[in-house]
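Lecture notes, continued. The same structure-token format from the folding unit now serves as the input rather than the output. Read the line below as a description of shape only.
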């Protein structure tokens, strides 16, 4: 009888930490779901996984997280054992987020040189995007300017670009507020390029933000 009681007590001691940890994870998951429902309504989920320990790169590769020898978590793209396990194709998402013909307002762009920007309200781009001897297309959206990357997001598509967006009056990089609320996992110290929101635009007038919110990537229409 005593052995049985001791065995039951040992099992209870072993099970308690597991149940406690599971309870914490379940409460954490409920918090995620509650905040996601509160802030991301209307946005399209383009990727999700069980935990939030992942990052993603400019070429839309999802990167896994591993535990380092010091016990800290980080995101690695160097160790082949933890190479990317997902490649997100956003083209279908962007082109599925249509809007009425009458609402289409093609974004007008102008090709500026470094010299032409001097003395204008866009002069700050000389320190951020355009260097001497270069020309870049700059598109205006409300009180912001959109500067596309050098090449389209997809080689066969001259309409869809990854871009940086700046507020003209301040020269600050635009950040969609929801996109920077909860984008870094606990205990993980990845570089900003892996978890910061990214921006895209179509020349037909659509502007998007892809952002990480806990364990999902969302697509938000900015306009």
């Amino acid at each position: 009888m005593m052995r049985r009681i001791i065995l039951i007590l040992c099992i209870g001691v072993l099970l308690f930490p597991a149940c406690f940890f599971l309870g914490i994870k379940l409460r954490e998951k409920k918090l995620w779901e509650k905040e996601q429902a509160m802030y991301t309504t209307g946005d399209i989920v383009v990727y999700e996984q069980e935990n939030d320990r992942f990052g993603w790169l400019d070429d839309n590769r999802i990167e896994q997280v591993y535990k380092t020898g010091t016990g800290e978590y980080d995101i690695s793209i160097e160790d082949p054992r933890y190479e990317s396990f997902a490649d997100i194709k956003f083209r279908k998402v962007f082109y599925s987020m249509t809007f009425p013909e009458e609402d289409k307002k093609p974004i007008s762009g102008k090709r500026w040189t470094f010299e032409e920007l001097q003395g204008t309200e866009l002069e700050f781009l000389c320190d951020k995007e355009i260097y001497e001897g270069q020309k870049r297309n700059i598109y205006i959206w409300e009180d912001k300017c959109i500067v596309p990357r050098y090449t389209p997001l997809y080689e066969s598509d001259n309409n869809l670009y990854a871009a940086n967006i700046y507020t003209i009056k301040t020269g600050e990089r635009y950040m969609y507020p929801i996109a920077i609320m909860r984008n870094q996992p606990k205990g993980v110290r990845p570089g900003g390029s892996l978890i910061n929101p990214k921006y895209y635009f179509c020349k037909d007038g659509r502007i998007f933000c892809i952002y990480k919110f806990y364990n999902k990537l969302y697509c938000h229409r900015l306009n």
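Point for the exam: The mean pLDDT is 82.
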